[in-house]
Amino acid sequence: MSLIVLLLLPFIGSCLAAILPHNARNAESFLAGLVALIGAIQMALWFPQIADGGVIREEYFWLPSLGMNFVLRIDGFAWLFSMLVLGIGALVSLYARYYMSPDDPVPRFFAFFLAFMGAMLGLVMSGNLIQIVFFWELTSLFSFLLIGYWHHRADARRGAYMALMVTGAGGLALL
């Protein structure tokens, strides 16, 4: 599996989760857990290349007229954080299966959750500053959507707005 496939896997899973029926809570949880597990297994297979200081790097033509390429890389630090994202993602998908009420729009939660996982993976695998800013902002957006999941509650809306302000300020500081 390539780095780009690993990056796209949660986003594809997010699209699939969004179109599952409202009552398919087992399928959605299984899908999210499977995406995280496949990613973690692939990361574990890359460990021997990373353990001795190696770097896995892929580069794709993005904006060649500006001399910018889409670069994904995994070094020891990125490997560690990717494993954290994927491992915690697998545990959250299991926990959320039992935590969510039957009345909750579960497909929306898992769609946002998988997209958030993909944004975090993109952030830790980014090979240049423009990608870091892009994936940081995606993480901010999906964090806002997850925190505000129960948007009918005032505290959820307030928390989502606060998270958006804090991560937006962090994005400005990053620039």
Give a written overview of the molecule.
The chain is mainly α. It has one domain. Helix content is 73%, strand content 9%. The chain is built from 6 helices and 2 strands; from the N terminus they run ααββαααα. The protein has a two-stranded antiparallel sheet with strand order 1-2. β1 and β2 (68-74) form a beta hairpin. α2 (25-51) runs parallel beside α4 (106-125) and α5 (129-147) packs antiparallel against α6. The two termini are 32 Å apart. The model has no long low-confidence stretch (mean pLDDT 87).
User: Structurally, how many domains make up the residues?
Assistant: 1
Biggest pleated-sheet summary = 2 strands, antiparallel
**Tally of DSSP β-strands:** 2
Strand order of the largest sheet: 1-2
**Per the principal axes of the C-alpha atoms, what is the gross shape?**
globular
Unreliable stretches, pLDDT < 50, 5 or more residues?
none
Number of helices: 6
> Structural class of the secondary structure composition?
mainly alpha
- Average of pLDDT: 87
Radius of gyration: 17 Å
Order of helices and strands: HHEEHHHH
Residue share in helix: over 70%
**Percent of residues in β-strands:** 5-15%
Distance between the termini: 32 Å
